[in-house]
Design the sequence.
């Protein structure tokens, strides 16, 4: 088993999930609250990775963030190294690629919270931020956890984007799914079996967990 | 307190009705102002505009010297800076917080000790001390209402807004809590604006009535005055023209209550919760007229008076009498002709006791 690849995959998925919580929750809150016309476009952009071949996303990221392009120079200035074939670059691509898998459950969960509760909070002198943190988020936690778990699992399983922008540098961009590809290419079927089984088991466990979270509609606070 | 609440707001709903309401009243006189009107008349929109949850398209809202909203000057004071408490129709208690957590929510800026003291104080005042550790899911409808009221009052609001506060309750609970709510509002002493479409609620809870129809304010005045002297046909239709007399309980006898309305004694069924002040209501169509020297009958109320005016309403005639109080009777034109009714004529008005509805004013 390639322990380096396991470690890297977990690190990438963890960091992506964390970033998606920080970026995705405000985005989801905006999508729920906004009545702006541009909302449809934003929703479409967020959903794009669901239908887009990952290679297309990877290709445009490579073009836009190439070391010579303006965005690429900005990335290098902030990250300290060029975009392609780096862990940070891979992280950015993963965030975009897993965005819908986090944001869509977040939106469903936040929209399911009675808007009057947020209004009651505002009437009691709370700011919008406090209302979100003290009322909306605790009441939407199931959906937020489900979205995070889905984003985590989806990042573990990504392949095309990693291949396009990350390559297969051990310890830097060689994730489990890439390792599996390499193992098959090298005809190491024993190792390939173990890697594939690990990814399969993880994905299955995650889907069971998500479905359990969504099934248990009975809310714990309705009782005593 | 000599602050005046005034508003002149317009709110358009795309493809829907337009609310264009203006009114003003001093908050010092009369504690509870009732926004009264049928559903769709704009009363909830108006309440939400006062709360700051709804931004009107045009106009202004002023609270004393403060401007809460002014479309022309682009002034908008957010809800949290208005010092206003709102009691939601379904109470909107935070389900994941305990009663204590709900009560303390609006006090987060106060130091912990002060917050806890205020929660305990409000809980004691509203009889919630036993429930502080419970979650809203484990409360009855009446308890939820009191928690919601306590939560709104805890941060000491300068104005309390109530959106149909009794409509979420079942009928028997509603009867009980109506009187209780008036007592709690009086005890809190905070000027209140209450939305309702129920005339009994308006009578039992309000001091001042603001009648809304089709998005506009049609009449503002003391509750009984608006009910018994609607300004125009529209208001009459909304409030249902009725004889509403401020009355005082004199005595009880045989399951009946005798009240004094002006100089007139009226007998009605005893609703059980009367104590002192009340309103006596008689629908105009329940009044029977007969000659002044009429014979004896089973009717409990015989009021001798003079016809003040007559006006036709289709096959019916609206007869206004002076019986010491102003009484309106709705009779057929045929019946009126038979009695030879004309202004100045002497008649006796008969009202059966069950037709006199007595509404307690806590």
Sequence:
């Amino acid at each position: 088993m390639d322990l380096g690849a396991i470690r890297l995959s977990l690190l990438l998925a963890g960091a992506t999930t964390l970033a998606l919580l920080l970026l995705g929750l405000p985005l989801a809150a905006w999508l729920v609250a906004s009545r702006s016309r541009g909302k449809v476009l934003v929703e479409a952009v967020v959903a794009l990775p669901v239908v887009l071949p990952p290679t297309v996303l990877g290709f445009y990221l490579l073009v836009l963030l190439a070391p010579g392009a303006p965005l690429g120079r900005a990335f290098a200035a902030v990250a300290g190294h060029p975009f392609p074939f780096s862990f940070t670059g891979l992280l950015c691509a993963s965030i975009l690629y897993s965005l819908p898998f986090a944001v869509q459950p977040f939106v469903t969960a936040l929209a399911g919270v009675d808007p009057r509760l947020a209004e009651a909070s505002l009437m009691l002198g709370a700011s919008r931020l406090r209302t979100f943190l003290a009322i909306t988020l605790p009441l939407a936690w199931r959906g937020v956890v489900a979205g995070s778990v889905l984003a985590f699992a989806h990042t573990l399983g990504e392949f095309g984007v990693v291949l396009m922008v990350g390559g297969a540098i051990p310890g830097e961009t060689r994730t489990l799914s890439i390792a599996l590809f390499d193992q098959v290419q090298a005809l190491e079927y024993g190792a390939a079996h173990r890697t594939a089984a690990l990814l399969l088991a993880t994905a299955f466990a995650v889907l069971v967990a998500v479905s359990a979270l969504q099934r248990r509609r009975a809310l714990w606070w309705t009782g005593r | 307190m000599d602050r005046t609440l005034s508003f002149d707001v317009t709110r358009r709903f795309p493809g829907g009705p337009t609310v264009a309401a203006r009114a003003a009243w001093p908050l010092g006189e009369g504690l509870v102002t009732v926004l009264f009107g049928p559903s769709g008349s704009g009363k909830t929109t108006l309440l939400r505009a006062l709360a700051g949850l709804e931004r009107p398209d045009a106009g202004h809202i002023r609270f004393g010297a403060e401007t809460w909203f002014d479309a022309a000057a682009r002034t908008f004071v957010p809800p949290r800076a208005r010092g206003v408490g709102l009691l939601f129709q379904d109470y909107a208690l935070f389900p994941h917080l305990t009663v204590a957590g709900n009560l303390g929510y609006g006090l987060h800026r106060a130091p912990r000790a002060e917050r806890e003291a205020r929660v305990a104080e409000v809980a004691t005042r509203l009889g919630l001390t036993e429930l502080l550790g419970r979650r809203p899911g484990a409360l009855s409808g009446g308890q939820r209402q009191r928690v919601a009221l306590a939560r709104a009052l805890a941060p000491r609001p300068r104005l309390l807004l109530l959106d149909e506060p009794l409509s979420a309750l079942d009928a028997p609970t509603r009867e009980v809590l109506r009187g209780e709510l008036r007592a709690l509002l009086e005890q809190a002493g905070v000027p209140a604006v209450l939305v309702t479409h129920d005339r009994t609620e308006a009578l039992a809870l309000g001091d001042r009535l603001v009648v809304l129809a089709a998005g506009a304010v049609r009449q503002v005045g003391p509750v009984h005055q608006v009910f018994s002297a609607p300004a125009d046909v529209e208001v009459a239709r909304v409030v249902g023209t009725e004889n509403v007399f401020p009355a005082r309980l004199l005595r009880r006898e045989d399951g009946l209550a005798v009240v004094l309305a002006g100089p007139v004694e009226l007998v009605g069924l005893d609703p059980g919760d009367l104590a002192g002040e009340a309103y006596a209501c008689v629908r105009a169509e329940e009044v029977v007229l007969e000659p002044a020297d009429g014979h004896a009958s089973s009717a409990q109320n015989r009021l001798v008076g003079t016809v003040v005016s007559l006006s036709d309403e289709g096959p019916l005639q609206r007869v206004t009498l002076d019986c010491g109080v102003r009484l309106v009777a709705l009779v057929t034109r045929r019946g009126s002709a038979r009695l030879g009714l004309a202004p100045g004529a002497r008649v006796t008005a008969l009202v059966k006791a069950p037709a006199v509805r007595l509404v307690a004013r806590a």
Notes: The two ends of chain B are 23 Å apart (CA to CA). Residues 171-188 of chain B form the longest helix (18 residues).
